[in-house]
């Protein structure tokens, strides 16, 4: 609510502005008109009250008429004088009403700003002045969004800091003891270029998820670009308008100056955020280099790396092999301002879920989001290729995801283009583990020539090794903070959460990057893994798995009191679809912990054609309410 002051003279007369002086108004005036007398003298006889009497002629009819006229005039004069007497009463009533309204206005302002500390505000002028100053500050916040004001706590003092182009600041500090929170849309303002380096001083502290209460380790981390996923999807299918409000363009709109242009942004100007989680991986810098050097439009790429290293032993992901002073044209030098690295000590690593959670905190409203491992190589023009593929689906809620093929024999060393005519598709999964900790995990996936041509092929599952989507996917399906020491099972969790929010998963028609697997690369066998610190966080994975399965309703036999429900809505399900629909469609029995096998037979042949018929007209995902299907294994006795 905006409160504005309106100046009014405290000494002003009410009648000056309220009561008009006119013949038919509230103040009567007599109308004097000279009448000729019967004797032709032209002189009037009578009093000074404005009533004129014509001369006597002796005629009785004239006498009667004169009497009638005099009676009528006396009546008008009496009525006019009565109006004059009523004017002060009406004016007094009006003044009373105006006074009450003005007092109510003052009370509202006093309530809104009752905590004004300086003595000047004790008087009327001080209150009005302070009110206007605070209103001007709030208005200025919205008129100049690129000059965000954020708070910095130093001891007992709070300082006001201007942070250019910060899309997440939402607090204005008026002095050392007072803050005003500015209302924000659930979708922050997207800006480009952008970097978490511009947000120094507004990081937030979180408890490391691997330590018990009483042994808290606090970490300073970037805040989420959109802190409340539920406020974005509102537990229902997002509107297309809301979806298009997320995503920046490298060239602002020429009329509005906004970097958020929706689908009016040209394909080659749509920004891409590349998220990489790395654990002591010597190939991480090569992956970052490849993302820029192979891109057709590297100027629209921004890379965010969570780099878990041992300082002094491991190289950083953003430091090139040779110094920039010697070779300034290296991609890591040319595009250093488009690389954000969150570095943490390797002995704090608790698995890929937490690392990727931190990676999601690096996202800043880019149009597309892609996720990969720290040891991949991209094909030439990968950015143009993958965007053309996702746009070919016609599905705003499409997510392209797969297990990557090995790099060996996959990329032409001269052209940098893919040599593969096949691609993997996600359809093979099975229960693993024992007892209450049984969970679904993806197995090896079949790789073959695409069964659908001209667009990616619909599939049921999501893969963490490679994912490409619109930016709102990471804003609405963030990695869970409370799942330490999880390596298997996270993919089903993310996939199911995304399904309930309305997302659809596709296998890319063409692979745009390839994986360096250890079994074919002896050097990679030397790379350490996060579980070298497993003893330090022993037992944490059990509770985390109960939470993971509980949120997606895959462990109905487990009492809900056995797992942590912290921020469950934020890292939980949506309201567009039910998990039970997914389980029925793809033959998953969460009570018996079994699956209907040979699902790939359906996925590779019929699923896409059957389900894509129900893509909504506005492109906001497949309408599963119109699909009544349940996969049954046609060959239950076959391996």
Automatic annotation (TrEMBL):
It comes from the Eukaryota. InterPro entries: Glycosyltransferase. Residues 36-50 have a biased composition (Low complexity). Residues 58-71 have a biased composition (Basic and acidic residues). Residues 72-83 have a biased composition (Basic residues). The keyword Membrane applies. Keywords: Membrane, Transmembrane, Transmembrane helix. Pfam families: GlcNAc. Residues 1-83 are annotated as: Disordered. The chain crosses the membrane at residues 89-113. PANTHER family: GLCNAC TRANSFERASE-RELATED, GLYCOSYLTRANSFERASE 2-LIKE DOMAIN-CONTAINING PROTEIN. This is Glycosyltransferase (GlcNAc). The lineage of its organism: Eukaryota, Sar, Stramenopiles, Ochrophyta, Bacillariophyta.
